[in-house]
Amino acid sequence: MKIERIILLIGCLLLVFTGLSMPGCSRKGSSESEKPVIALVMKSLANEFFKTMEEGARQHHKEHASLYDLKVVGIKNEEDVSQQIKYVETLIAQKVDAVVIAPADSKALVKVCKQALEAGIVVVNIDNKLDEAVLASNDIKISFVGPDNRKGARLAGEYLAKHLQTGDKVAIIEGVPNAFNGIQRKLGFEDAMQAGGMTIVSSQSGYWETAKANQVSAAIITSHPDLKAILCANDSMALGAMAAVKAAGKSGRIRIVGFDNIEAVQILLQEGAILATVDQHGDKLAIYGIDYALDILMGQATPADRETPVDLITVETLQ
Amino acid sequence: MKRFYSRLPVWVTDYLGMAGALGLLLGIFGFTADNFFSRSTFLIIADQVPDITILAVGMTFVLIIAGIDLSVGSVMGFSGAVIGVLLVKSGQPIGLGIMAGLFVGLGCGLLNGLVVIKWSLPSFIVTLGMMEVARGAALRVTQSRTIYIPGYLDFITETRWLGISMPFILAVCIVLLAQFVLSHTVFGRYMVAIGTNEEAVRLSGINPKPVKLAVFSLSGLLAGLASIIHTARYQANPNNGQGVELQVIAAVVIGGTSLMGGRGSVLSTFFGVLIISVLETGLAQANAQESTKRLITGAVIVAAVILDYYRQRIRNVKTR
After folding, report:
1. A46-50, A215-219, B157-161: which range is least confident on average?
2. pTM for this model (two decimals)
3. In chain A, what are the domain boundaries?
4. Partners of residue A51 in chain B, C-beta under 8 Å
5. Which of B29, B54, B148, B193 could serve as B282's disulfide partner, Cβ 3.0–4.6 Å?
6. In CATH, what is the architecture of A34-146+282-308?
7. pLDDT by residue (tens digit) across B274-316?
8. Is B284 an interface residue toward A (CB < 8 Å)?
């Protein structure tokens, strides 16, 4: 049958594609080499931010292939906490030397990280900080290497405040309600707006998504026609807010700031549709973690937190 | 024919019921949300429903033949990704990009249909597979990056008549056309018949396969069309349309289409889409908390389906 053949052909093509994309498939078993194996455990590799982080790590590994072996795993969607826990359990069983992890949940991952430490694995926490209180109650210390999201958001907020006047109405589009970095960014935005004397009329979640942020922004713009600015906890949501401002015919009258500095936003900064964003150097974040893990493995560093830079990106800094 | 006329009033009560529920929601938000009854609120809703409406039309047909299409959100994401890559990365003309988007949607739908009919598989699992495949493909072609499309597609969202955007008018036309096909053509009758009892259809000498293939292909094609509108508004993000399939199914079911097949109406689906959209916009304007939003949305979906149960009973009494 013709149909059968076509489907088989497509099936084979798909298999080839998925085979190509499977991380670690083509890599040699770790037991053969003397080099330490560092496992990078990410959140969703479907997310541009983590994809960039992964690419940065792979590039770094290529340049320092003699120092260590790299393994990268990522979960399907960002909320899939149980999947990430299973990955770490697998890595413990595989006896990797270090785990560099961006936890999907700042509390739920603590227990499995403790198991890893007990198995003699070096654990370095990147991106999303593990909860202090839970770490303390488990009697463990895990070094955090990452940016201060609150500080980053404050930078963007302060830059925005310079373009506003005291008493101006602003709105915040938050990330997923329980995400630590989202909460930190919200707090940073609030710090800056309060310092500048602006009124926050609404603060709602856009679930990190463009379409959702668009819907919420459009509603806020309607209920507050004199709104002057929208502060978004990531750039995807800033794109949604931008579409809402455009649809309301208020381009230029409502300013937008974002966070993450994704590629798509850079043109918009130049066009003036988005005022500012924050770069927390996602491409280097995993590298910082890996470097730190290597330092600890070679006995050159003792576990402690290390803060990585956050930079304000505006049309001036782009040039 | 006689039966058709005797059913007319039932259709009327059907739509009145949906319109009443919608009116009630509008009334509640009129009191609780700031500036709800304004021209811009309704223009916002009109701007936000076209893509969902178009997906819901395809979904209505699929549910009527007792199938389900879980892949629409991912297929929309994939089509949009292809449009983005062609327009921005390869600098192809806009017309070609749009055609490619439609073609990708149609291709995914056709593949769903072929697999479902060839091996008589449940569409739930086949389209679940397509949901993953299309999402993976979207991530692959964009390398997981959002592609910003500078202005090329603005003509789609910014062509307006009396403030109403072209996508909204297009969506309404598709709804009317699909309702006509459903209730006034042989194809529509076949769909209802297949959804009611596929075996009986086969035994009466009608091959259900071409109809089913057409329905799944149409669902894919409509996902391609929705992706053009979605991408024009939100740029080509490979994660576009995630979870949209459930939102679409909710809208279709609120509109009284049966998940068991054999019964449904495209016009009622449109009301379902409007109810969900009014609810979401209203809750956001009322500055509701995240938890409240989800509690209320969930409750309304269940309430609407319970309402449909009683509506259905009334209809059965009337037509008996």
Report:
1. A46-50
2. 0.82
3. 34-146+282-308, 149-279
4. 143-145
5. B29
6. 3-Layer(aba) Sandwich (3.40)
7. 999 999 888 888 888 888 888 999 998 888 888 878 877 777 7
8. yes
